[in-house]
Automatic annotation (TrEMBL):
Protein name: FdhF/YdeP family oxidoreductase
Residues covered by the Molybdopterin oxidoreductase domain: 120-498
Cofactor(s) needed: Mo-bis(molybdopterin guanine dinucleotide); [4Fe-4S] cluster
Keyword vocabulary terms for this entry: 4Fe-4S, Iron, Iron-sulfur, Metal-binding, Molybdenum, Oxidoreductase
Family named by the database record: Belongs to the prokaryotic molybdopterin-containing oxidoreductase family.
Domain Molybdopterin dinucleotide-binding: 648-755
Keyword DNA-binding set for record: no
InterPro entries: Asp_de-COase-like_dom_sf, MopB_CT_YdeP, MoPterin_dinucl-bd_dom, Mopterin_OxRdtase, Mopterin_OxRdtse_a_bac, Prok_molybdopt-oxidoreductase, YdeP_MopB
Length: 765
């Protein structure tokens, strides 16, 4: 197995490298975002569109899920939000004529970057069996094609309904309703590859699989630990919140193998001082940890807290909270007391002094928030790692109190809302009961496939129709060659999309592209102009209303696509009023209000400026809807990746110029990389041990239990201050190296932050 830069692609991957930066945002960010935006949209459209982002009368930024503050700036977006908007509001178009010029056999040789740069999709397109060209197809015919294939299946469970995280609450609710009325819980989603580990760990320990803090809590915290997250690139608006917390006296610890620019220093582009001056230094303590060392770190920290309390009983732990609200303390404490310094130092690569400094800061802080993202969720032992973070917070009563709590920072702008709406392959019985009661059909109870199992099912011939509501399944999923081969075995693959991507050109026997409206666009239906709603990373629900004319007159909204598809597939027997739902999304919201807890009076409350907060038992009243009715301490064995001699651990991560598989440009400004993506960041000593000078080229070769050789060819070596033994390279170019069955225990999330590799230097540079 091997990947190479696609041959014949006009995009040249020729990275140039300078020293990494130590501060994020500021003037260069403003200039960079405006350049990218005007290139795609022109000056006037750029101004009109960007001023509507995240305003109370505007649309929700399609970038990340970070919440909007109450007092919004006129420009409540960031450099990367501007790029996400420009990518969608671009004036470039992919027309039927484009597909006439480019057969699929040509498009499969193009890079993802090139495909995305072609512009917005404009008409439904159909690839017939054996054909090499997509042809335009009327919407009604497209729905018939899907309906024919779905009805021909031996069982509804041979169909897969994937969702990416930009889908609105209304579209998501309708989509899961359709899948369940059709008869399957096969609703894999991008969460399976993202924060599933957080959901698993938090549901078990706190009873709610979501974060427990609001922005206000960050502002009030004494200590904020940011572990396994790069907010300067992926959640830039979080830096403003950290800056504000800092001004209020908070200290910040970052735990990361890489010194990430945004966490070091932040130049707030919304303040004159930030634009021109030196900005705010954010991190007070940087713990440069080994990949996968976090569980060991928190376990030892917990032992040290227990011992500090032994020395001065009742001054360190919140015994009243532990007694009243938690379960499993004794067993946990015994496990924590067994934590070993030497093992922790081996697992984390940290020095004793680092951990002691962290302990001092924790002891000085009354209220603590822990934030995390993919650095904690994409390891084999991610679920126990996050449970250990929960143990740490429970010890001092740092849950359900102002200024304290868990803060998993979500990725896609509505990924949290999609889950709330029932996009889940393992739905709770209570949710299915509510659906059954409201609509009067019997939803399937058997659990469905998640992403990894969906790929296995296609590979093994157990699933035959793949339908995607957004996303880029082929490129986002692990083990690219296996995933592509699996997709090619499907009878039919269908993508509801805004932009062209690789999943449209690596297809089943037949394929459809269904073009849809984006967030920035007006959504006109029979019942008048519609808006949709989203839920951010902190459980705030609000409206999103686009202002631009649609990219093409042929586009349908996501809710309209689901409703028409459902009518084509289910026919008059359906018990759901799909036509009414399509005409008027208020009707959908009325049903959501009756099915999903916390949405009472949805239509009224979501019309209030800024929307409303969903209830959260642990946060609001220290009620923990777990199996024990309490917050659960847990005591799992400590794990960390073992790496054979001469091998490295590779994490696959994001550059500054990408949104997941969407590539905006070839630079990673803060890390000093320009003009290319096939780079591998190596500690200079690790590079030297392989005789690799900075600028040399190497193949990355995966090593996994199955003995299959996974190879990503031709990466430029960058000497970089990463932790010894830990390498980094961009996703999705390196997904070919992530074995399909290398996943997190319990959550089954691909372990894309701990891939064992060896380096094979290439002779020619
Ligand atoms: N501009 C932009 N914004 C985005 C996205 C995007 O691609 N582009 N993607 C969105 C999505 S879907 C998501 S999920 C989020 C992702 O947001 P992040 O999680 O910030 O994304 P990654 O680039 O995967 O970065 C992982 C970070 O964790 C660190 N890390 C890796 N392994 C470990 C570890 O074992 N321990 C610790 N302590 N740290 C580790 C890495 O060095 C890196 O800083 O961003 C969202 N926002
Ligand atoms: N190796 C490795 N793999 C990873 C990760 C990693 O860190 N390392 N991260 C994982 C994570 S956290 C995630 S979330 C997944 C992301 O997986 P996905 O969500 O599947 O991927 P995206 O790249 O975000 O999807 C981009 C496509 O979505 C479509 N799109 C954009 N906006 C809209 C819209 O409004 N409606 C519709 N219908 N379509 C739209 C466009 O056609 C675009 O090409 O990748 C995962 N894969
Ligand atoms: Mo994500």
């Amino acid at each position: 197995m091997a990947t190479k830069p696609p041959a014949g692609d006009p995009v040249q991957d020729a990275p140039e490298v300078t020293a990494p930066q130590h501060a994020a945002a500021g003037l260069p960010a403003v200039g960079h975002s405006l350049r990218i935006a005007t290139r795609q949209m022109g000056v006037k459209r750029t101004a009109l569109t960007l001023l509507k982002v995240n305003q109370k009368d505007g649309f929700d930024c399609p970038g990340c899920a970070w919440p909007e503050p109450d007092h919004r700036h006129r420009a409540e977006f960031c450099e990367n939000g501007a790029k996400a908007v420009a990518e969608e509001a671009t004036l470039r178009r992919v027309t039927p004529d484009f597909f006439a010029r480019h057969p699929v056999s040509d498009l499969t040789r193009r890079s993802g970057y090139w495909l995305g740069q072609q512009g917005r999709l404009t008409q439904p397109m159909y690839l017939a069996e054996g054909a090499d060209h997509y042809e335009p197809v009327p919407w009604e015919r497209a729905f018939e094609i899907v309906a024919d294939e779905l009805r021909a299946l031996d069982s509804p469970d041979e169909a897969l309904f994937y969702t990416s995280g930009r889908t609105s609450n209304e579209a998501a609710f309708l989509y899961q309703l359709f899948a369940r009325e059709f008869g399957t819980n096969n609703l894999p989603d991008c969460s399976n590859m993202c924060h599933e580990s957080s959901g698993s760990a938090l549901t078990e320990t706190l009873g709610v699989g979501k974060g427990s803090v609001l922005l206000e809590d960050l502002y009030r915290a004494d200590l904020i630990i940011v572990a396994g997250q790069n907010p300067g690139t992926n959640h830039p608006r979080m830096l403003s919140a950290l800056e504000k917390a800092k001004a209020g006296g908070a200290r910040i610890v970052s735990v990361n193998p890489l010194p990430e620019a945004g966490l070091e220093r932040f130049k707030n582009p919304q303040t004159p001082k930030g634009l021109a001056g030196g900005g705010t230094s954010l991190t007070d303590l940087f713990l440069q940890i080994r990949l996968g060392g976090d569980q060991a770190l928190f376990r030892l920290l917990n032992r040290l807290l227990l011992e500090a309390d032994d020395r001065a009983p009742g001054t360190v732990l919140d015994t009243a909270f532990i007694d009243e609200h938690t379960h499993g303390y004794e067993e946990f404490a015994a496990a924590a007391r067994a934590a070993d310094w030497d093992e922790t130092i081996r697992a984390t690569g940290l020095e004793r002094g680092d951990i002691e400094r962290l302990l001092t800061m924790v002891l000085q802080a009354r209220s603590v928030v822990v934030c995390w993202a993919m650095g904690l969720t994409q390891h084999k032992h991610s679920v126990p790692t996050i449970r250990e973070v929960v143990n740490f917070l429970l010890l001092r009563g740092n849950v359900g109190r102002p200024g304290a709590g868990v803060c998993p920072v979500r990725g896609h702008s509505n990924v949290q809302g999609d889950r709330t709406m029932g996009i889940f392959e393992r739905p709770a019985d209570a949710f299915l009961d509510a659906l059954e009661k409201e609509f009067g059909f019997t939803p399937p109870r058997e659990h469905g496939y998640d992403v990894v199992r969906a790929i296995e099912a296609m590979r093994d011939g157990d699933a035959k129709v793949f339908f995607a509501m957004g996303g880029n399944f082929v490129s986002a999923s692990p083990d690219t060659d296996v995933t592509e081969a699996a997709m090619r075995r499907a009878r039919l693959t269908v993508h509801v999309s805004t932009k062209l991507n690789r999943s449209h050109v690596v297809t089943g026997a037949r394929a459809l592209i269904l073009p849809t409206l984006g967030r920035t666009e007006k959504d006109h239906q029979a019942g008048g102009e519609q808006f949709v709603t989203v839920e951010d990373s902190m459980g705030m629900v609000h409206a999103s209303r686009g202002g631009l004319d649609p990219a093409s007159p042929h586009l349908l909204s996501e809710p309209a696509i689901v409703c028409r598809l459902a009518r084509a597939v289910l026919g008059p027997e359906s018990v759901v009023p799909w036509e009414e739902f399509e005409a008027d999304y208020d009707q959908v919201r009325d049903r959501i209000a009756r099915v999903v807890p916390g949405f009472d009076d949805f239509n009224t409350r979501v019309r209030a400026p800024g929307g409303f907060a969903l209830p959260h038992g642990p946060r609001d009243s220290r009620t923990f809807p777990t199996a024990t009715g309490k917050a659960n301490f847990t005591a799992a064995p400590v794990e960390y990746p073992e790496v054979p001699e001469g091998r490295l651990l590779l994490q696959t991560l994001r550059s500054h110029d990408q949104y997941n598989t969407t590539i905006y440009g070839l630079d990673d400004r803060y890390r000093g990389v320009k003009g290319g993506r096939r780079v591998v960041l190596l500690h200079p000593d690790d590079a030297a041990a392989h005789g690799l000078a900075d600028g040399a080229y190497t193949d990355l070769v995966g090593e996994w239990a199955d003995g299959v050789e996974r190879r990503a060819e031709g990466f430029r070596v960058v000497h970089y201050p990463t932790t010894r033994g830990c390498a980094a390279a961009y996703y999705p170019e390196t997904n070919v190296l992530v074995p399909l069955d290398h996943t997190a225990d319990t959550s089954n999330t691909p372990a894309s932050k701990s891939v064992v590799i060896r380096l094979e230097p290439t002779r020619e540079a």
